[in-house]
Amino acid sequence: MLDIRSLEVNFVTKSKNKGAVTRAVNNVSLKLEKGDSLGLVGESGSGKTTIGRAVVGLNHISAGEIFLDGENTLGPNGKFDKKFHLRAQMVFQDPHSALNPRMTILRSVSEPLILHTRLRGVALYKKVSELLEIVGLQQQFLYRYPHELSGGQKQRVCIARAIALNPELLVLDEPTSALDVSVQALILEFLKSIQAQLDLTYLFISHNLAVVRYVCNKTAVMYLGQIVEQGNTEEIFNDPKHPYTKALLKAVPLPKSGQARRSNPLWGDIPSPIDLPEGCFFFSRCAQAKAGICDKTPVPVSTLSDGRQVRCILFQEGDIL
Amino acid sequence: MTTKKHISLEELQVPSWVERNQSTIRQMKLYMHTFRRNSSAMLGLGIVIVFLITAAIGPWVVPYPEDAQGTIHLEIKLLPPSAAHWFGTDEVGDDVLTRVIIGARVSLKIGLIITGIAILIGVPLGLIAGLVGGRTDELIMRFTDVFLSVPGLILAIAIVGALGPGIQNAMLALSLVWWPGYVRLVQAKTLSLKNSIYVDAARSMGASNMRIVFVHILPNCSSPIVVKASMDMGLAILGAASLGFLGLGAQPPFPEWGAMISYGRNYLPDWWWYSFFPGMCIFLTVLGFNLMGDGLRDILDPRSRE
Amino acid sequence: MSKQPFFSIRDYRLNFNTFDGVYQVLDGVNLDLERGQSLGIVGETGCGKSVTIRNILGLLPSPPAEVISGQILFEGRDLLKVSKAEMQLIRGIEIAMIFQDPMTYLNPVFTIGNQMIDVILAHQRNKPRANKMSRRQAGEHAIEMLRKVHLPNPDKQMNSYPHQLSGGMRQRVLIATALSGNPKLLVADEPTTALDVTIQAQILDLIAELVEDMGLSVILITHDLGVVAKVCDRVAVMYAGQVVEYGSIEELYDTPRHPYTQGLLRSIPHPEISVAKLAGIPGHLPNLLDPPAGCRFQDRCAEVMPVCKTTPASVSVGGSHTVACHLIRQGGGDA
User: Fold this and answer.
1) Is the pLDDT of residue B4 over 60?
2) Candidates B13, B201, B220; nearest CB to A98
3) What order do you get walking across the sheet with C65-74 strand by strand?
C-alpha cells in the first residue's frame, strides 16, 4: 500500500558560498502492505524523519517516487497532491509542541475536519467527542488548553487529530519519546489496539529499538540516509546481519541485572551527511570493514534467503562470512 | 480506550458558556493576580484609567466648555491657579484645566490612530515577510530598515514639512514612522513560529498559508504586539506633542497638549502654569502607559504562565 | 556501627514555595553510597530525582526551595549546612556534576580550551601559592583530561568551539571538565538522555571505565532503567518525592517488590525478548500541593490497603534491599 522507490531527498544549505548539499535520504526503497507496521530505526542523521515527512507531504522529494495505493503522491505539477492528506497523516514527536497553545482541544482536533469535510456546529462537536472517546479522553477535555493536559493526554489528542479523517496510513514520528515509561506503555498498547480496529497501516519512526520490536512486524534500519537492513522484525532482532544493526542492538542497555559494565561499544561519531564517502557509509566505524573494497565501491543490496535485505559486502551472493 | 461509538444527540452535553471558557477565566484570574502584585504596573494602570475616563467624559465635566475652542476673554487672561480656574488661564483667558481635559481626548484619539495605523500596516507586512521568506522577506525588511535608520521625529518633521502643518498630517507622519517597529517584531516572531510543530501539523492536514497565518501564527504573536502597542500609545502621544510643540502639529486654537506647551513657552517662568500643566499631563500619561506596558509584558511572558 | 558512609542523604524533606502554594516536593529521601560505588536514581518526570541532587552542590535557588529537614552527609559534613566558602571548596574539587544537554552547558562564544582552563584556574583559588597552577599548566592539565575521556586530537580540540563538536564529544568535554578537579564524587544528571544510542553506549562505557580506573564514586540520575542496570551498583527508585525501593541491581531487577517498580519493569519493552503485552501504570502523579498522607503511590496502586493511606512504610527485605511498602509485611508484594 505504501511503495517508496529510490527516494532521494536533498537539502541545500542556505549559505550561498558553500552551496553544500545535505543528502538526507539516499536511494531508499521501502514497501508496506496494508495492515503492516514498519519500524524505521536509526540515530540522528539517518534520514528517518525526513522520509516520514516526505510521505505526508511536508518535505520535497529530490528524486524517486512515493506511491500510496498505487498512486504517485506527486501530482502533475511536481508537488504533493493535496488529496493524499486524507489518506496519510502524521503523529508528531513532541506532544508538547504539536498542539497550538492558543487553541482549545476542540479546535485543534476539529481542524482537519474543518479543512476537508462539511461538518460544522453540533455535528462537528459530536464527531470530535467521538474521536476523543476513541482515544480515551472524556468530553471535559474539549474546552481545555494544551498546557492543562499531561504529556500522555496531549499525545492522545494528537492521535485523535490524526485519525479524524480516517486515513489509511499513519506516520508516527517518535510518538512516545517524550513520554514517561509508564505512559509510553499505555500509548503503545493503545496504538496496537486501534491498528486492527481502524484498519491502519503504520510507518513507525523511532530510535528506540525496544519499542520498535514491540510495535512493528517489519523493521528497516537506517544509517546516514540509507537502509542498511530491512525485513521481518523478529528475524532482524534475533539474528542481526549488518554490522551496524549488530552494534545498535548491542548498544542498548537492558533493564536487567548481570550486564557487563565494559562493553566495547561502537567507536567513532556519526559522520556528517554533507560529506558522504563513495563506498559504504558505515566504513569508518565498521569492525569488519575491508579497506580497499568497502570504502571505494558503492554497496549493493543483497537479498537473503529469509527475504531480508542487507546492504553489506559481506552478504553478497556466495560470500557470506 | 473503547471501540468506536456513536453518541446520540441527547447524550451530548454541550457545556455552558462558563464551563466552556473555564480555562480562559482561570487564565485571566492568574493574569490579574500577577498584575496586581506588581505595584508599578498597577500605578501605570491607574494612571491610564484616569486618562481614559478623562478622555471619555471630558466634554461633559469641563467647567468652561466654550474655552476648548479658544474663545477669547482677554479680561481674565493669565490668571494664576485659583478656585475658579484650578489650572489658571492662558493668554486669551481660556481655562487651562478645560483645555487640558479636552486635550486628553485629543491625545487619546491621536494615540489610537497612530498606533492603529502602524499596526494595520506593520503586522501584515511582518507576517508576509516572515512566512514567505526569500526575496520578499529581504525586500520588506530592507525597506523597513530604511525607515528605521532615519530618526523618527526628524522623519515626521520632514513629512509634515512636505504636507503642511496640521494635526491630520502630523498623525499621518507619525504613523508612517511607527509601522517599521511592528514589522520587525512580527517578522521575527513569525520566523520562529513557522517552524513550530503545530504549524507542520496544520500543513500536513492541508491547511493553506492564509489559514496558517491567521489561525496559528497571528494569535501566538498577539502578546508582543499588545505589549508594544500599549507602550506605543504613550510614545505616540509624546510624538504628537513634540510635533505640536514645534508648531507642526495641532494649530491654534486646537487644545493639544504639545501645542499648549509651545504657546506657554513664551510666558515662562512668570506664568508657569500655562506650560506646566499640559507638560505634567504628557509626562504622567506616557509614564502610565509605559508602566502598564511593562506590567503587561511580565504577565504575558510565557514563562509566567504556568 | 561501622564508619560513617562516604555519602548519604538522610530524611531529606524539601518544599517549593510558589504563587500556587507550597509544593511538597521531597518527602523523606534516604540514600547511601559507599566510596567507589555507583548509585542510580531512577524515576519518571516529577519524582524529584533532579531536585534531590541539585542541593548536593547548593544549586537550588533558595526561595522558592525550602529545606524542611534532613541532611546530605558527605564524608561527615552536612552539605546543606556548610558555609558558602566551604561549598566553593567542594564544588568541582571534591564533588563534580555533569548535566543533560551538553550544548546548553557550554558557552558558545568561548573555545573548549578556554572554558576548561577557566574552570581549572578557578579551582586553584584556594590552594597555597606554591601549588597553584599557571595558565600554561592548566592548559596541559586540560589536555590530559581530554585524553582521559578519549577525545581524539585533544590538543587541537582545545581550540574548537562547542558547536564544532558532536553531542557525544561535548559530553566528553563536560566530563573532562568535571574530572579536572580530581573529585571524589561525580553526580551526573541525565548525562546521556540527549544522545544517540551508540553514543550513549560510548559515554556509559567511559563512565564505567572511570569508576574502575579512578575509583570514582558516581551518582547517576536517569529515567532509563536500562542505563542504571548497566552502569550502577545500586539503584533507588523514586516516585513523587519518596524513595519507594532501594537496593543492589540484582536485588531490584531480579526481585522487585514495590508495586511501582514492578509496574515500571513491566512497562518497558525489551529489544531482546518479544514481550506479549506492556502493562503501563494508569493514573497520574498526586498533586504535590496537597499530597496524600502515607504512601504517595496509593491512588495508582492495585493493592492499596487502608494502612497505606496513613503511614509511610520502610521495610527491609534482606541484604541491602529496602522497600517502602506495607505489602511486604503482609507477605505479599512478590513480583
Assistant:
1) no
2) B201
3) C21-33, C7-18, C65-74, C77-78
